[in-house]
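Two folds, back to back.
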Amino acid sequence: MSRTVIRGGLVITASDEIHADVLIEDGRIAALAATGTPAAESWTAERTIDATGKYVIPGGVDAHTHMELPFGGTFASDTFETGTRAAAWGGTTTIIDFAVQSVGHSLREGLDTWNAKADGKCAIDYAFHMIVSDVNQETLKEMDLLVEEGVTSFKQFMAYPGVFYSDDGQILRAMQRSAENGGLIMMHAENGIAIDVLVEQALARGETDPRFHGEVRKALLEAEATHRAIKLAQVAGAPLYVVHVSAQEAVAELARARDEGLNVFGETCPQYLFLSTDNLAEPDFEGSKYVCSTPLRPKEHQAALWRGLRTNDLQVVSTDHCPFCFVGQKELGRGDFSKIPNGLPGVENRMDLLHQAVVDGHISRRRWIEIACATPARMFGLYPKKGTIAPGADADIVIYDPLAEQVMSVETHHMNVDYSAYEGKRVTGRVESVLSRGEMVITEREFTGRAGHGVYTPRSTCQYLL
């Protein structure tokens, strides 16, 4: 039996803060005891970690990543190996990535393809959602089988006609199925049919720069699609999780639905909390680095997102990590913003940026852990195995230095992409060490993990329903 003791830190979970020692046995948390008590002092272990003056927090759960995603004629630049290593550096110990069903193919084929991409490559544990691009009788039956196997969430798109798009009838059928099998529908809520009209008109006017990506993907079209998704879910009697909420009008739709007692949930991402259309408008095509969908919004939307996180009208902060290099990938859209691959890097930055939000007074320490660790684990059926520090949980633990200062930069990050979306940003707080199932993955700012340590983790159904 291998034993590790973490001594002297402030243990922070979504519900508690306590100066406690943590005993780890064989990859799981065995016990907690207040620091200095006879119980804690009696523990012996092969390895002792001194966390004095540090936070001891659960490993982050990033419920929205896209490693190796094919998009716009290219692929996301992080592999499962590089992406999960970068996640570990940033204090995230579980990712939920998206397996993709291609039109004309089965869900099983898509899932098998993504399992093959990830198998033996990951530095941390991982799970999958399923992107449903082709709703028909066969895929509806497959949804039942996947839920039984532990793939319990299905993403649909109201955007990207001709690629991922589902119409209202297809969405309703999938929602009706999930209402029966316990799955959770995740929705990319933008009116893609209307957006395509606006894209065509903008390009015809010669409006080709990256900033027009944000102007055509209007906040009202995010709000309209969010409202429509909520009503379809209501008709189906199904829960709904809206991904990457960026606009205050969309937050208002979620808040209204939740006030009515509906099982409707919302996720936002650090880019919407810390970046804006000012970045999209950067000169010399630099704005292309910030092209993602939903798009960055004017700064005034940020206050509504922070408020939504405080009031729990938004429950989760994920990254939608989908990096494309500026050279050779983002550049595909020079002269036509609609050809810029959509997505930006962030899996390594999320925990630090949200700690900065604690420093800045936007959220509390416990809310930080709630939106980054506990709620994503509960939302997607991983709790209490993941997302908390409690006896029986996996020993996914981060030793976090709340006073260390750092400057975010492409020079120091570990994501496989040639720019940082937060270049030059000063933040307070930094990951010092990371344990994944009791194994040291980051040891005092040195990577000591390995590809293949991370294991595929089946999930139960949503544990967050009203």
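---
second:
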Amino acid sequence: MGLKGKVRVPGDKSMTHRAFLFGGIANGTTTISNALEGADCLASLKAVEALGAKIERSEKTIQITGTTALNEAKIDCGNSGTTIRLLSGILAGSEAAYELTGDDSLKKRPMDRVTIPLSQLGAKIEGNYAPLRIQGQPLVGTTYTLPVASAQVKSAVLLAGLFATGETTVIEPILSRDHTERMLPQFGVDVTIDDFEDGRHIRVEGPVQLTATTVDIPGDPSSAAFWWTAAAIGEDSVITTERVLMNPTRIGFLQVLRQMGASVKISNRQEVAGEEVADVTVESTTLQAMTIEGEQIPSLIDEIPLLALLATQAEGKTIIRDAAELRVKETDRIETVVASLRRLGASIEATADGMTIEGPTSLKGAAVDSAGDHRLAMMLTIAKTLNEEIQVNGNEVVEVSYPTFYDDLKKLQDNGNG
């Protein structure tokens, strides 16, 4: 039977990170509701606590009383690339020394993509990989053009700009996620955004002090995407994800679903914390293969494992290009996705910057491993809804981004069988 029902997915991961980090350095007490309390975001919360912020939790909210004098600290960022890269920007202009480290996976991820631009403002950071040693310095504003679309690099530079003297401008030739520049005004920061021929110019004037606020975090579209996929490829399935973030830089996957012929309905639109939210309903349909490349990629980079699964059930040859960044995620996501789906009988080949998939294919039962990657574990679990004989090992890693994933799956299965 199919999957049916409504799901409220956890709060958006990118927005939760920023709410925790900004609240931690803001003047006053910030109240955050529907935060994602997965391992990655909690790394950001623990980081600001180590720097001197006070945290109070209730059943529905997290309150952060920020600190303006950041303690010297050694901070463990766990598996969170967002935590270590954004913190690098925040701490570069402070008055103390810091060490930022993480787990074995994080220590393999390149950090020069943030340390090089931060050095343009005068930052003193040692290390191309974690642990990073940061000696806080007086910073001076600069203009930096992003060589690749990266919300983490853009955010690191803008956050360093808050502590720098003068104007800091980030020029973005290809748009990436814009949660930092949308949320900073909620914390009282003046952000100027203009579009020019060479890209989008985002400016902040420093030094500036953040002011505490209230943030209600919408549902994470990267988490909702698992249910959209399950509904689209399932038999007789209808799933509504409620109150999901509809930021244009984050719903590339939804647009591709529509282009592939999926039935997608959007309702109940409203605005929350400078962002649009809505309910999204997806029903089972026949899907058509397509080519996904270029400017589409940054807005769906985290959903490419799901696109690969969708493509195994679509009519024709799907080509995914320009996604080389996947090779430096929690795992080499191109290799792990291709190897896993091939084990399940998919006709899929890896390329240098993506993959090609022929469909439709009936997936066969086999044991597959998450490789310690939360998105891979969830994608393979959605594949299992097509064939119960698929066995997913290492699925506890879903705690990183979606602690209630298996509870929600059971509810949708029960509704489908009811």
